[in-house]
């Protein structure tokens, strides 16, 4: 798949087929993630990669579906809420692979005097985007879930993660279900989002 076609085709897929992903394909996707630019050129990432469905199902128990009372969406955002909120747990359960992209953070991201922690966080998301694009290039669906409330600590304890590592998101990969629901995309174009030389 041509590079710009990959970017155009990437979508958040929250419904997956019950089908394993070949290990060599996963290794290509993970390797693509690890080529991302990093803070201070250290690449302090550890990718906990789950393919054992029993482990994935146990992990999914920590994820709480969000309530959504929207029945007739009026905007693309509301349509996304209606599709995504009830599937926060099931999209983890159904995934053939769940990647936990931990990064080592030396500085407190909440510090008001030192912003260096944000560079580690930003680099982690560059890794995540590489993985999402690589998965798309391989013909897979993908989606992320940002861990909230007690989820980060519960997942850390469940997976025996050492102190000092932060989980920015969970990445779910799998073969897209044929009837997977995808919300209408918000149009962000060069014409309506880019400012040349001044605002």
Automatic annotation (TrEMBL):
Matching InterPro entries: Nitroreductase (IPR029479), Nitroreductase-like (IPR000415), Nitroreductase/BluB (IPR050627)
Domain Nitroreductase residue range list: 7-175
A GO MF label: oxidoreductase activity
UniProt-listed CDD domains: Nitro_FMN_reductase
Keyword terms: Flavoprotein, FMN, Oxidoreductase
Residue spans crossing the bilayer: none
Coiled coil: none
Domain of life: Bacteria
Keyword Oxidoreductase: yes
Name of the featured protein: Nitroreductase family protein
Provenance organism: Bittarella massiliensis (ex Durand et al. 2017)
Upper classification of the organism: Bacteria, Bacillati, Bacillota, Clostridia, Eubacteriales
């Amino acid at each position: 798949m041509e590079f710009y076609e990959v970017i155009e085709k990437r979508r958040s897929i929250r419904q997956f087929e019950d089908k394993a992903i070949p290990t060599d394909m996963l290794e290509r996707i993970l390797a693509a993630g690890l080529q991302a630019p990093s803070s201070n050129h250290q690449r302090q990432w550890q990718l906990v990669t789950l393919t054992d469905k029993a482990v994935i199902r146990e992990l999914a128990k920590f994820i709480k579906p969000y309530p959504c009372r929207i029945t007739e969406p009026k905007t693309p955002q509301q349509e996304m809420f209606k599709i995504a909120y009830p599937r926060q747990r099931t999209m983890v359960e159904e995934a053939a692979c769940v990647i936990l992209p931990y990064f080592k953070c030396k500085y407190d991201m909440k510090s008001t005097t030192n912003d260096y922690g944000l560079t580690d966080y930003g680099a982690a998301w560059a890794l995540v985007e590489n993985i999402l694009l690589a998965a798309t290039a391989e013909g897979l669906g993908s989606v992320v879930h940002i861990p909230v409330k007690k989820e980060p600590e519960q997942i850390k304890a469940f997976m025996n993660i050492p102190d000092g590592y932060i989980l920015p998101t969970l990445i779910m990969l799998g073969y897209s279900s044929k009837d997977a629901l995808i919300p209408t995309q918000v149009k962000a174009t060069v014409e309506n989002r880019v400012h040349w030389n001044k605002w």
